[in-house]
User: Fold this.
Amino acid sequence: MNSIASGSYEVYLEELAEAAINQHIKVKDYSKVFVLVDENTKQHCLPKLQKIVGPVVDEILEIPSGEENKTIQTCTTVWRNLSDYGGDRQSLLINLGGGVLTDLGGFVASTFKRGIDFINIPTTLLSMVDASIGGKTGVDFGSLKNQIGVINQPQMVLIFPDMLKTLDARQITSGFAEMLKHGLIKSSEYWDSLKTVDDYTHADYIRKSIAIKNDVVMEDPTEKGIRKILNFGHTLGHAIESYFLKNPEKSALLHGEAIAIGMILEGYLSHELKGLSMLSLEDIKTTFLQHFEKVDFSEEDVKIIVDLLKHDKKNTHGNINFVLLQDIGAAILDVKVPTPLFEKAFAYYNQ
Assistant:
């Protein structure tokens, strides 16, 4: 099977992806076809796309890579480019890049002329298994992640695993964190298989992760309930990512690196509050530390990170809501965590 149905669109893999995009563009007869890239995907991935779709692309729009550029200011530049190059409501925007680019490109497309079609072609492991699936689009607001955005579905998502060959090992490992998360929240069997696999970039594992996320999203497209389980590790993880991104004395962490820490911390909270066994907690910590370098957190770091939690977009009525684990493969929604436990969670991580 090389496609996964997701409501109004499909996720296509490998050869079927090539056929799908060409058929779609032919049938829709777009007035203009734009491709959004960054400097990396322009060099490494755009030539492959141009080979697949031929001369139908009218304009290449480029933005700088990096989470620090996932801003309204960057959106303004792309909106202006679309307008200057004659984009109208019958135009198509193809987002060729990682999670930052597909998030931002999807938001740009969803708001330009009150909405134009877009297609996501994720080029990192992280975006293939997570960011490009499910219709979440948006940008950061200052140091706060994903504060501005909409949920809007693409026309299709196209997965070309061979594009991963252009990435360095750190980027690949960052994506692996989200794959491990899919096992933790939904499938202990998948978790166990990933722990021992040599090549998790194989199309079969990518497809499995996409299928797990897609099943959750299909059940709850607008994140009113079960879809929240996809946020495991992200409440503390996003706060850590934001802190390291904006602190000039810290080296920025990739998304998956911050979320891996978040999953260890939230695993500890799960043990304290929801009965996750110590054996499972140690399994989670050991697995992530085998793949991700340990980060040192001072008392001051922890204080600032915990303070950032109050801005998390999942909060309601002033409450910080966590997704925790009852067991590996069994997640629980909307858990309130007593503040003193945060310090204990970091102490567990640090020890």
Q: What stands out?
A: The radius of gyration is 20 Å. The domain at 3-167 is CATH 3.40.50.1970 (Rossmann fold).
